[in-house]
Design a protein that fits this description.
The structure holds 2 protein chains of 2 kinds.
Chain A lengths: L2 H31 L18 H9 L2 H32 L5 H13 L2 H15 L5 H5 L6 H13 L2 H9 L4 H12 L1 H17 L2 H6 L8 H10 L6 H28 L8
Chain B lengths: L1 E2 L11 E10 L2 E11 L7 E2 L6 H9 L6 E6 L2 E2 L9 H9 L2 H15 L2 H20 L4 H22 L26 H17 L5 H9 L16 H7 L2 H27 L1 H5 L5 H13 L2 H12 L5 H9 L10 H29 L3 H9 L4 H27 L2 H6 L11 H10 L4 H29 L4
Antiparallel strand pairs in B: 1-4, 2-3, 2-5, 5-6
Helix pairs in contact in B: 3-4, 3-6, 4-5, 7-19, 9-14, 9-16, 9-18, 11-14, 14-16, 16-19, 18-19
The chains are: A mainly alpha, B alpha+beta.
Chain lengths: ~270, ~475
């Protein structure tokens, strides 16, 4: 072991102890999901492993369909949300126009309004648009996110103005400036937001429940809700298997995207 | 509720109610009523408005099914199965939970609107349900048609009573729903929220809700045929004199004071770990993010596995170590702490992700400049890194600490004895659950005003201090 590795050891421990605490529910879900239902209230290292819980929970709901719906929803969000929010955030961060702070304050207020109240007005709007019971209706209220605008504006403001000026001197148009300078540099923030946004859509329950009413449009949480509504005979083992199944894509995405946060230092351009 | 003395004995069958209970949506309308009505008598049922007289009569008449207990007529239990409890409907609602929303709408129509309108909506929804269950129509088509028809009836009713608006008055000191009902948390609260949303839709005129709320907060609550009128700050004076509101305000402040600094500090404390480079870093970051990834439905169940009194892992450990069992979410002293722990756990991961992203965008040139000036690591963090990420590191937790309702709901429902009730739960409990929208207006305005002042002031303050160029 070299000297620098020894230095890292306390850091390693300081990181992993809380990390394990944070992950404990997930680890517990993992343990429950891979062991027979008989072991759900007692922990026993010698308990036999099984894959049966996954088979049981897969059979209880039309998960394949729900997975397809959730994927379509997330694709829709990921296709539209970054474009809209980047444009708005750029305007708030670097363009001068009248009532800019007032408009931005309104965006901030949107962060504060309770979702329970919006639920209802959103339903009205979707009904008037004739979109009730479509995947578009689940995604549409979320395509313009106050949080994303806020986050990206903050990020854009930290990007050195020198880069901006240099591009303008070279004769870059406004859209070109946004596309060539700002977008590449805000990638970490965008990815972080995308991750949170996708998690939210993936796990959102109330809004899809209100606005959809057929298997063809409902996302994954509806599959999970079947375990939560039939009170009498749910087994924790099966519930946990279902939870893991539905959360696996998100955990995987988190693992893959994590590299982006660590690697993409802002080095370009300034010497 | 009291029953008057019998007037006249006769041979008609006597009516016995045994431990009769009925829940409508999330409200307990009747709770364990035992009463015997002698046959052939005139019995008088007395009680203040809203105490459950009509509910009792509806149960005896067989118009509704009790949630618990039974009605015996002449000593025989008259079989009146609740349509919602039959296997066919249960299988149907499992695939189609919106029917439960329709049922709650129905309950609301029956209890809140005139009996006439309520009965018409009942008929419409029941026939739609019958059509769906017997297969005459697809469930979607049946419920869509019923929804449209019920909406039309309600719209006609509202047009007729336009000036009445939302009703019922503010009730300070409303008893909090009991605690320890861990088993029924889960979905129940979500469905209650949906039902509440729909109730608001029936009660509020289709105006922009924020504007309507602001207007409502300055008006008196209409009662019966007396329309709402301008009442000045009366609603605000009333909530300010309510001890539970004061307690919810205090709890919110305490909750914010506990969770905001700790989640920020924890998220920031992970900073050196980002620069460090060792195996499993990705897995470690993922571990912090898991509370955001796992759906709330599942989290509630897993939490029970840990904290369930008597059988949870923590409790098993306590018993093993000789401390005895403890119900963390059921004790007034620890309930808010339990909520705070869960909040911090969830939010740290969330903030860390954004913090990491913010850290990545700080120009390397600034770090280099600081290094040339001979800055230590600590100075660099305090003078360069922290100010640059401050604007959104500090604003977000403030918003989240006040917005959080779902965890409190799933964990404790504001109990026990209102100890874990935060400002938002207060609004929810007083305004949405029993449909007191007008009365929820004043606390809503207080909350939004508070958030706006704190959030935006904080944002502007930090934003001004940083020179980005």
């Amino acid at each position: 072991m070299t000297g620098s590795q020894v230095d890292l050891l306390p850091m390693w421990a300081a990181g992993w102890v809380p990390a394990l605490l944070w992950a404990l529910p997930l680890l517990c879900a993992l343990w429950l999901a891979f062991h027979p239902a008989a072991y759900e209230t007692r922990f026993d290292l010698t308990a036999p492993l099984t894959r049966e819980n996954f088979a049981i929970s897969w059979g209880k709901a039309t998960f394949a369909r729900y997975f397809r719906n959730a994927t379509a929803l997330v694709t829709l969000i990921l296709a539209v949300q970054p474009v809209l929010c980047t444009l708005a955030a750029f305007a708030f961060a670097r363009l001068e126009f009248q009532a800019r702070m007032l408009l931005f304050s309104l965006v901030l207020v949107q962060l504060l309004v309770m979702p329970d109240i919006l639920l209802l007005m959103n339903y009205r709007s979707m009904f008037q648009l004739g979109l009730v019971d479509t995947i578009l209706a689940i995604g549409l209220p979320y395509v313009a996110s106050g949080f994303a605008i806020f986050l990206l504006r903050q990020t854009f403001r930290t990007i050195p103005k020198e880069l901006d000026d240099a591009a303008r001197v070279e004769g870059c148009s406004l859209m070109g400036l946004l596309w060539r300078v700002y977008v590449p540099l805000d990638r970490p923030a965008m990815l972080a937001f995308a991750l949170v946004s996708v998690s939210h859509q993936w796990n959102n329950f109330l809004w899809p429940l209100v606005v959809t009413n057929s298997v063809e449009t409902r996302p994954l949480t509806m599959g999970l809700s079947i375990f939560a509504t039939t009170d009498s005979d749910i087994e924790w083992a099966a519930l946990n298997a279902a939870t893991l199944m539905t959360s696996a894509p998100l955990l995987l995405a988190c693992l893959l995207l994590q590299r982006q946060f660590v690697q993409s230092f802002l080095r370009a351009g300034i010497k | 509720m009291e029953t008057a003395a019998p007037l006249r004995p006769a041979a008609a069958p006597k009516i016995t109610c045994r431990h009769l209970s009925r829940r409508i949506a999330s409200a307990q309308a009747l709770d364990g009523v035992d009463v015997t009505l002698p046959g052939g008598d005139f019995s008088v049922l007395l009680g203040p408005s809203g105490c459950g007289k009509s509910t009792l009569l509806r149960l005896i008449a067989g118009l509704d099914a009790p949630s618990d207990g039974q009605v015996l007529i002449g000593g025989r239990d008259v079989p009146r199965p609740d349509v919602w409890e039959t296997d066919v409907v249960k299988a149907y609602t499992a695939e189609f939970p919106q029917a439960l929303v329709a049922r709650d709408q129905l309950a609301h129509a029956v209890t809140e609107l005139s009996t006439f309108v309520g009965l018409r909506v009942t008929q419409v929804l029941n026939s739609a349900l019958a059509a769906a269950v017997t297969g005459q129509k697809s469930p979607k088509a049946a419920l869509d048609a019923a929804q449209a028809e019920a909406d039309a009836i309600l719209a006609a009713y509202r047009k007729q009573h336009r000036r009445l608006g939302p009703r019922r008055c503010f009730r300070p000191g409303r008893p909090c729903p009991g605690t320890g009902r861990h088993a029924e948390t889960r979905l129940d609260s979500s469905l209650a929220a949906v039902a509440a949303g729909f109730r608001v839709s029936a009660g509020l005129q289709p105006l922009y809700p924020a504007v309507q709320t602001l207007i409502d907060s300055f008006r008196t609550t209409p009662k019966g045929r007396r329309p709402s009128e301008f009442g000045g700050v009366a609603n605000y004076v009333r909530i300010l004199s309510d001890p539970i509101f004061a307690r919810a305000m205090w709890s919110s402040a305490v909750h914010a004071a506990r969770t905001i600094p700790s989640s920020i500090t924890l998220a920031l404390a992970m900073a050196p770990l980002v620069q460090a480079c060792f195996a499993g870093l990705a897995l470690m970051h993922m571990a912090f993010f898991t509370p955001t990834v796992l759906p709330l439905i599942a989290v509630a169940n897993i939490r029970l596995f840990f904290c369930g009194p008597g059988f949870g892992l923590i409790d098993q450990f306590r018993i093993w170590a000789g401390f005895g069992s403890a119900d963390y979410t059921g004790q007034p002293g620890s309930a808010l702490y339990a909520v705070a722990v869960v909040t911090v756990r969830k939010e740290t991961g969330l903030f860390m992700i954004f913090y990491l992203a913010a850290l990545r965008t700080i120009p390397q040139s600034l770090r280099d400049a600081a290094a040339i000036e001979g800055c230590g690591r600590r100075t660099l963090f305090r003078r360069v890194t922290l100010p640059l990420i401050m604007p959104f590191v500090s604003v977000n937790p403030t918003i989240y600490a006040f917005r959080l309702v779902d965890h409190v709901f799933v964990m404790t429902r504001g109990g026990p004895d209102n100890a874990s009730m935060l400002l938002r739960d207060y609004i929810f409990e007083n305004g949405f659950r029993p449909w007191d929208t007008a009365c929820a207006a004043a606390p809503t305005i207080v909350l939004v005003a508070l958030l706006t002042v704190v959030g935006i002031a904080q944002f502007l303050a930090t934003d001004r201090r940083v020179h980005y160029r």
